Amino acid sequence: MPLTSFPPGFVWGAATAAYQVEGAAHVGDRTPSIWDTFCRTPGKVQGGDTGEIATDHYHRFREDVRLMSGLGLGAYRFSVSWPRVQPTGRGPASQRGLDFYRRLVDDLLAHGIRPVLTLYHWDLPQELESAGGWPGRGTAERFADYAHLVGEALGDRVGSWTTLNEPWCSAFLGYAAGVHAPGRTDDADALRAAHHLNLAHGLGAQALRAVLPRSARISVVLNPNDVRALTPSAADADARRRIDALSTRIFTGPMLRGAYPDDLLTDTAGITDWSFVRDGDLDVIKHPLDWLGINYYTPSVVSAATDNRPSPGPSAYPGAQGVAFHQPPGARTAMDWTVDPSGLYELLMRFAREAPGLPLAVSENGAAYDDRPDGQGAVHDPERVAYLRGHLDAVLRALGDGADVWGYFVWSLLDNFEWAYGYSKRFGIVYVDYGTLARTPKSSARWYRDVVRTGRLPMAGPGRGPSVSGT
Ligand code: PNW
Fold first, then answer.
1. Rg (CA), the chain
2. Which Gene3D superfamilies match (predicted)?
């Protein structure tokens, strides 16, 4: 029997990340992160945009919590800025930095909104990058200290913890493709970074477990890739296998099974011998998880390349020369990402199968569109409503087919700093006027409020009459 409504107790949330929303880059003891540096490097971020002010969430968080409360949200997924709370990446905490997160969390709790805290959403203290960054083992060790310090400070009021957000982006967009901070392009360094991010997760989870109350729930957030082969040929199936290893199994292998996949080690043998993996690392990385966060936006389609031309520019997939990427068919968002909710269903079912008993959450899902206010100042975003509806329907189908999904977080609460795209891409269900920083809920925010209230999916689009069931 397909489900027509979400189970009672299903958690509805929205997500942001520190560098993308906070601003206040020079407030308190905060030092620059690798994103501050990257934004100041000419040509790296569209329009020369930076996170200096962003949405000014640092000063406007009470208004943002009120907005979430008005939408009926049960949870807010946010991240802590490492250089705000531990300015040099080592040593003592900044009390002023921690106080900001205490105020935010207390305001959330006062509104009945559960805080879901991510320790690392890409804003590495620049000092740690200058000391070697994620390719160096020391950064993973520093992360454990940072986790301990935040756990000790906020463990009395935050029950849900995530070590890392999307380590794939940190390792491969940051150190191989160079399109994210710190903008390095060295395949061997990117694979070292992936391992040290895995290790940071394991050491961080251990550190949290040691300071948090037993009831605390510890997780990691991944962006597993739903990779499809262009044709059923053996060559395309092999291309699919290689990209699956480099995007998903490089993290889930160590984290869920305590081993790097053999095929990954073979595929990357020409780049590194993996001798940076020390005895005992894999046991640390396999630290038990209380839940797994899955971020999903779009699937990938790959084939064996039919010519031998090297791809233009550095790749985000070291060891996958000879794989061609194809735009999946279907409507596209402003990111040019194809809208295909079946990828979310497939990923949820995959983890339900491969990690039985591990609760899952959709920790990010959403879309960018070219939103602008109409003459009255209202923002109508029917494409986003259709996107969310389709993906929530996929979650409902996965729930009906036995996946243990406890919650869904829309990316994002607010329009914000979309990394290398600057402010040109708007993912929010709430519009931000970057001149005045005024917030205006889009029609998708009202639609989402109705979903949250009823636990059902009304028809896409405003003013289309009464709701019908979710299938
Ligand atoms: C995620 N890719 O980033 C992040 O967690 C968010 O901070 C971000 O705003 C959101 O998705 C939308 O982009 C990604 O190129 C960035 O595959 C790039 C990719 C994937 C995720």
1. 21
2. Glycosidases (3.20.20.80)
Q: How far apart are CA 412 and CA 22, in angstroms?
A: 14
Q: How many residues comprise the chain?
A: 471
CA-closest candidate to residue 335, choices 369, 366, 380 = 369
- Kind and range of the H or E element at 119? strand 114-120
Partnered with residue 432 across adjacent β-strands are 439
For residues 208 and 151, is the Cβ–Cβ distance under 8 A? yes
pLDDT 10s digits, 91-143: 999 999 999 999 999 999 999 999 999 999 999 999 999 999 999 999 999 99
Q: Pick from 81, 172, 223 the residue to mutate for probing ligand 1's pocket: most ligand atoms within 8 Å of its CB.
A: 223
Q: Which value, to the nearest 10 degrees, does the dihedral of the CA atoms of residues 425, 120, 110, 58 take?
A: -60
Q: Say if CB 151 and CB 211 are below 8 A apart.
A: yes
Nearest CA residue ID for atom 18, ligand 1: 169
User: Residue 302: what are its φ and ψ, rounded to 5°?
Assistant: -130, 160
Pocket of ligand 1 (CB under 6 A): 17, 20, 165-166, 169, 223, 295, 364, 411, 418, 427
> Complex ipTM above 0.90?
yes
Name the residue with the closest Cα to ligand 1, atom 16. Answer: 169
The closest of 64, 57, 142, 70 to 100, measured between CA atoms, is 57
- Using CA atoms, how far apart are residues 97 and 75, in angstroms rounded to an integer? 22
- Residue 48 DSSP label: G
Residues 338-348 have a mean pLDDT of 98
Find the 418 Cα to ligand 1 centroid distance in Å.
8
- Asked if 13 and 77 count as a contact pair (C-beta separation under 8 A), the reply is yes
Residues 6+ apart with CB under 8 A from 386: 339, 460, 461
Mean pLDDT, residues 30-40: 99
**Ligand 1, closest atom to CA 416?**
9
Catalytic residue numbers, as ranges: 166, 364
**Token reading at 186:** 């060295």
d(CA 170, CA 358): 24
Ligand 1: atom nearest CA of 419 is 9
241: CB partners within 8 A, 6+ apart: 263
- pLDDT at position 470, please? 32
Furthest CA-CA distance within the chain = 64
Which atom of ligand 1 is nearest to 225's Cα?
Answer: 17
Tokens in use for 74?
A: 């049960």
Task: Compute the distance between CA of residue 72 and CA of residue 59 in angstroms, rounded to an integer.
Answer: 22
Closest C-alpha to ligand 1, atom 13: 418
Cis peptide before 303 (omega within 30 of 0): no
CA 44 to centroid of ligand 1, rounded, Å: 16
The residue type of 302 is V
